[in-house]
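Sequence in, structure out.
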Amino acid sequence: MSSKPHIILIVIDALRFDRLTCNGYDKPTTPHLDKIASQGVTFENAFSSTNATDPSLTTIFTGLHPYTHGIVSHGMDVDPKSINVVKKISYISEVLKKCGYRTFALDWLDRWHKKGFDYYSGFISGRKFLLKIPSRVRALVRSLLPQRLYLSSLKIDRAETLADMALSLIRRYSNQPMFFFIHFWDTHTPYYAPKNYLSCFQKMSYNCSLTLSDLIKEVDGEQAKRVIKMAAAGCSDVNEVLARYDASIAYVDGQVGRIYQVLEDEGFLDETLLIITSDHGESLLEHGIYFAHHGLYDVSIHVPLIMRGPDIPAKKRVNGFVQHTDILPTILDLVGYNRKNLKYEGVSLMKILREGNSPRRYIIAVEGYTQRKVAIRTKQFKYIYSPSNQTATCRFCRKIHGGTEEFYDLINDPLENENLLRKDKNIVTEGLKDLAKEIYMRAFLQSPEKRLLNLKLNP
């Protein structure tokens, strides 16, 4: 075994912070994550920098905000010029290779995300052609195929398949420092779980009086209606969809538990850094956003972040603000890499653990996939900004969620239901407005090259 720790970075797609049992949820979704958290650190105020997968993973791998690296949208809508710029930025996988690590990724997104990996799985259990063709063509196919047949064509590698592959590679290459990126997708719409998990949660109470037809009537956009139908395929009511989301979490949690157990059985556990997070959260019924993750409300940007491993204290919960930008400098700190030649905007979480608090007074998040907005969040307040009705209109739901500008008192209104700007248009300071406008300009109006030239440290 090398003196350098193995590193396993697990991203559980669309996993909400408040759906973990160790974070106060009243259903048994995460017994294995709870165990890992009890042996390490839980960050109670960890936030993604965006609410879509492509920009979020780019931030995790580079330590840069979306408004700096330029990937502010997702999928086919990403600006090719921004992709060309990102290809020139150092990825954590590339840096770790220089440190003597073998690098593995179990994920299917491919594209610029595969940079620096010795092994990038792509699809393990079969190539799904529909995910590789343009979104407009997929929309046509979706309109022609029955819903269940369309969903079956999109089935991705299940958590069990990824865990099997991870365990095989761990056993094979454990004589050299390993960096694993494992991306579990089962918690993404349409929320997959085997029958034994699903039946367990279907017996539990969710107390939702809304019907699926109620949700479909609430939205005008065809894309939003399709998402609801996809999430609800095979379900009789909303409560069953909520049960399936929780069951998918429990299923993935069980596969994380398998990886943990093999690390322990093989004697690698205490020499392995485990980092577990999600790329973004999920709006289930909140704010008129159903089973999706657009909107910069906490349900979509407040994410779990758990760390366990060498030099990580046990049974510790940290209250200060942290973001995905902090993962890269944390890993480099723990492997002793000289970071002076790297540009990044995060802060090592080890520094935060050593000093007892976070240097951040606020966090920033942006979204550019379904709408263009910026959020600035302090412990008490959140300001969400978009410059016009056009930029604030959700292209999925065909409406403006909350307004072009929103301001919430999170202490008295943690669910972000009352936009205080409707009562007092002067409640937001000019300084806060100016900051939001500056971030918006950098994210959506500057050229990709200029964004990097204007790199500033995150507060």
